[in-house]
Specification:
The complex is a heterodimer of chains A (277) and B (316). Chain A has 277 residues and is mostly helical. Chain A is built from 12 helices and no strands. The chains are: A mainly alpha (277), B mainly alpha (316).
Amino acid sequence: MTAQKLLSTIAFYALVVVIVVFSVFPFYYAIVTSFATGTELFKVNYWPKAFSWANYETVLGGRNFVRSIWNSVFIATTTVVFALFLAVTASYALARVRFRGRGLLLMMILAVSMFPQIAVLAGLFELVRFLGIFNTPWAMILSYVIFTLPFTVWVLTTFMRDLPVEIEEAAIVDGATPWVIITKVFLPLLWPALVTTGLLAFIGAWNEFLFALTFTSSETTRTVPVAIGLLSGASQQEIPWGPIMAASVIVTVPLIILVLIFQRKIVAGLTAGGVKG
Amino acid sequence: MASNDGGLSLSQQRQRAAFWFLAPMLAALFFVAAWPLLRTIWFSLTNTLLSDLYGGEFIGFDNYLSIRVLESGRVIYRGTLVDPAWWNAVWNTVRFAVVSVFFETLLGLIVALVLNAEFKGRGLVRAAILIPWAIPTIVSAKMWAWMLNDQFGIINDIMLNLGLISQKIAWTASTDTAMYAVLMVDIWKTTPFMALLILAGLQMVPRDIFEAARLDGVNPVKVFFRITLPLIRPALAVAIIFRMLDALRIFDLVYVLTPNSAATKTMSVISRENMIDFDKFAYGAAQSTLLFAIIAVFVSLYIWLGKVDLSGEGQR
C-alpha cells in the first residue's frame, strides 16, 4: 500500500515536471539562442554556452525596431484607455439596470467578440482608407476596438453584477443620480477589475497581427508583432535567427513579468470572460 | 441588480440613464463591427478591386458561384464554391480546429486536474503554464520555427537522439508535416488557457463531494467520470466553444510559421491573400463572408443543441 502510494506520488510529480518543462522550455531556448552568435548559433546547445549581446545590439541598433516598440506601446495604451472609458458606463447599465432586451444585447456583444476578424477586414479597410488613417497608428486603434471593447464590457459586467445591491441602494436613497453612483460608488470598487481587464486588453492589442499587417505599409509604422513576423535577412535563405530571438525576448519579458505579478487577477479575469460569462 | 426600485419614475430615470450609458459603446461597436461587416458582404457581391474601392459594380453572387452555358452546350462553373483552393482551405481549417481543440481540451483537463490537487509548488506550476499564454502568437511562431528548423532545430536533434526519427525532418516546409507543426505550436500555446478555464469550473465544485467519494472508497477513475466530468460539463462546453471559434479564424500562426504552404492555408489566410495580395478584393470578401456564415451557423447549432448558457443570466 505505501509502496503504491509512493509510486503514485512519484508519477504525479513526474507529470508536474513534464508540464513545467513543456511550458517553459521553448522560451528558455529562445533566450539561449538570443545570446549565441556566429557558428555557435548553428549548433544545438541545450545549455547556454555563449554569452554575447551582439544580437540585441543588432535589433536595438536598427532604428525601426525601437520605433515599432513605441508604436505598439502607444497603440495598445490608447486602445485600452478608450475601451475602458466606454466600458465602465456601459457595463454599469448592463449589470445594474433592468431593461428589456438586456440578455439579447449581452449576447450581441459576446457575438462581436467572437467575430472572425477577417469578416470585417474588407469593410474596415475601406473605412480606414476613407478616414485617411491608413498606415498610421489610428488605423490600429480604431480596429482594435472590435475585440477590446466587447471583452472589457463583458468582464466588467460580470464583475459589477456580483457587487452587493446595498451599496447602491444607500446611494439611491440619498438621491444620487446614476452618473454619481458610477463615479463615486462603483469606480473606487472597480479598480482591481479595471486593472485586470485593462491588462488583458493591453495584451490582446499588443499581440494583434492581422489588422496591423494589413493597415500598415511602411517599416516605421509597424507594430512589434508585424516587425518580428516580417524580420528577414538579405535573402530568403538567410533568416537572422539570432536577432529574431533577441527581439522576441525583448518584447516578451515585460509581458511575462506583468503576467506573473498579476497572475491571480489575470486568471480571475480570464475565467470571468470565459466560464461565467 | 436593482430588483426593488423605489418607484416607477425612479426606474424610468434609471432606464433613461442606462440608454445614454450604452449609446457610446453601441455606436462604437456599430462603427467598427456591424458597418464593416455589412460593407464586406456588399463588396462580396461586387467586382471591386483593391486599387479602386469605389469602382466596383454589383454582380450578384458571381464571386460565390456563377454558371455560364456556352453555345456549344458546355457549362462553365466559376466562383469560390467551385474553387479547389477554397475547399482545401476549408478542410485545413476544420481539420486544424477539431484536432487542436480536442488535444487542448484533453491536455487542459489533465493540467487542470493537476492544478486542482494540493501539492507543494502549485503556485510555481501555475506561473509556468501562464508563460506560453503570455507570449505573443507571432513570437511563439518564430520561436517554434527556429526549434523546428530542419538543419539546426533542437526538435530534430532531440528526436534523432531518442531514435524517434532516422533523418532530419523539414517540419514547416514539408507538406506532410506542416500541419503537425502548426498543431504542435497551437496546442502548446493554448492548452494553458484551456486548463485555466477548466480549473475555474473545477473549483466551483464543492470540495466535500470529493471528500465523501474518497471516504466511501470510490475508485478515482470512477469519481472522475461519474462526478467530476458531469459537474464541470457546463464550464467545459463554454471553454470548447470559445476555443473552437478562435481556432476556426486562425490566421497569424499559420501566416508566420508556414508561409504560402497549401497544406496549412486556412480560410482566413486565403481570404486575406485574395483581398490584399492578389488584388481580388471582392473575391476575398466573398470568402471571408463564407467564413463568417460558417462560424455563425456553427455557433447557433452548438448553443441550440448543447443548450449552452453563454450569457450567465440563467444562473440568476
